[in-house]
Write a sequence for this structure.
């Protein structure tokens, strides 16, 4: 099969299907895809088309954010992003996904599918599960958002894991765009000192979200005919036992970053239990994401804040920035242990400093971040380590700055919060320029479980 199609701007954010028949005895499928122009005249950003491959039973993979890519799939091997497996006879489909089409040029793509029945001479790659850490209760530091060549990154899975080791992380999560094909290799690289965890980034036309703690492919096409709405997609993720996280909700959207801005008006935050407020280095859009998160807390949503590097390759040696890790208090260093702790909000986000926040009510009930205290007088305890002189510690109550403490050196601080002061509070550590060093998940006051 060979197809050539010219798109108009009306095709932007559409899914364009191309079905083809595969006869019995087919051993290999090869697909060539290209589109032109890659950049329309006068535009600073590329046109962006991707494609997904489906066999008669469901998804086989995706080629995300590509131009001039080819894939090959057979029973033993497949191009990264695509899953190997028996080539079933029947109707297969290539779905071209038009993420970003920019004027003025018409954009034409060509799609070519070739089939082979030659005997296979290659062999399957078998990834053996790596050693899992055997560490008990404690604080663990890691990344919840990272990419590999199985989607649009410049490095392979072992490079990501090596980077995590070099930065002394306790856990790292692979979350490629709309595919899970790198997870088996990722899992094989776990050892006593580094936990490798699974996930996927649902990368839609109207927003991105992380599905964490899953090895299942999740449908990501939303608001298109009979396909899922985003609340339905999120519920499927949650029902599977995975954690759903709205990713970088206030990131720039089209045309700068297709789908990166959260546009789902029926899910702000809807049934999402978590929001990524710190994506990559601290930026203005992270500040806006944090303030959006605070506003959702004020609406009565009990939400967890997360961070993610969103890393796509080795950073340049001269690159300067401030990215955060998730520092999680878990019962054990296992995937289930980490994600259960994150669901409870037992974590803070930090670009280096230690920021331990606890509290005690007048009746003696003690809480850590993520917990709930009764409506009564509360004493807040904060321990800061590795802060710089001139940093500012801020107590945030219901989204407003309640108390400011100038840091002269690391140490311990105590604040009192009278009865009826607010519904939730958290603590931020910022520098003199107001950029973030660390922020804790909130402690809630007299509110019910998440709704």
């Amino acid at each position: 099969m060979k197809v050539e199609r010219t798109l108009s701007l009306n095709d932007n954010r559409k899914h364009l299907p191309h079905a083809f028949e595969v006869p019995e005895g087919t051993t290999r499928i090869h697909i060539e895809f290209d589109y032109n122009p890659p950049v329309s005249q006068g535009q600073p950003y590329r046109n962006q088309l991707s494609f997904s491959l489906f066999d008669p039973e469901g998804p086989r993979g995706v080629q995300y954010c590509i131009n001039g890519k080819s894939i090959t799939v057979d029973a033993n091997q497949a191009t990264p992003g695509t899953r190997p497996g028996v080539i079933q006879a029947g109707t297969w489909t290539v779905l071209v996904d038009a993420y970003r089409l920019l004027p003025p040029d018409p954009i034409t793509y060509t799609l070519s599918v070739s089939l082979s029945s030659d005997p296979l001479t290659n062999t399957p790659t078998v990834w053996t599960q790596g050693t899992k850490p055997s560490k008990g209760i404690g604080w663990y530091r890691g990344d919840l958002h990272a990419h590999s060549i199985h989607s649009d990154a410049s490095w392979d899975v072992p490079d990501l894991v090596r980077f995590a080791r070099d930065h002394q992380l306790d856990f790292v999560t692979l979350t490629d765009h709309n595919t899970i094909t790198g997870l088996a290799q990722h899992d094989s690289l776990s050892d006593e000192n580094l936990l490798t965890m699974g996930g996927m980034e649902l990368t839609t036309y109207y927003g991105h979200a992380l599905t964490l703690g899953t090895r299942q492919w999740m449908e990501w096409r939303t608001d298109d005919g009979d396909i899922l709405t985003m609340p339905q997609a999120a519920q499927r993720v949650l029902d599977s036992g995975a954690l759903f996280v709205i990713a970088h909700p206030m990131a720039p959207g089209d045309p700068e970053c297709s789908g990166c801005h959260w546009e789902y008006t029926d899910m702000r935050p809807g049934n999402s239990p978590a929001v990524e407020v710190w994506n990559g280095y601290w930026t203005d859009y992270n500040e806006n994401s944090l303030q959006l998160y605070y506003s959702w807390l004020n609406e009565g949503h009990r939400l967890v804040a997360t961070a993610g590097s969103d890393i796509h390759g080795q950073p340049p040696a001269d690159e300067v920035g401030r990215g955060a890790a998730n520092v999680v208090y878990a019962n054990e260093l296992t995937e289930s242990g980490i994600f259960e702790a994150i669901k409870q909000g037992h974590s803070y986000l930090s670009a280096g400093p230690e920021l331990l926040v606890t509290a005690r009510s007048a009746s003696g009930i003690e809480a850590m971040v993520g917990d709930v205290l009764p409506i009564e007088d509360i004493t807040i305890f904060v321990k800061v380590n590795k802060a710089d002189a001139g940093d500012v510690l801020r107590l945030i109550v219901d989204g407003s700055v309640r108390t400011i403490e100038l840091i002269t050196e690391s140490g311990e601080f105590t604040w009192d919060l009278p009865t009826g002061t607010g519904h939730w509070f958290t603590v931020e550590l910022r520098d003199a320029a107001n950029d973030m060093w660390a922020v804790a998940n909130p402690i809630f006051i007299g509110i019910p479980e998440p709704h």
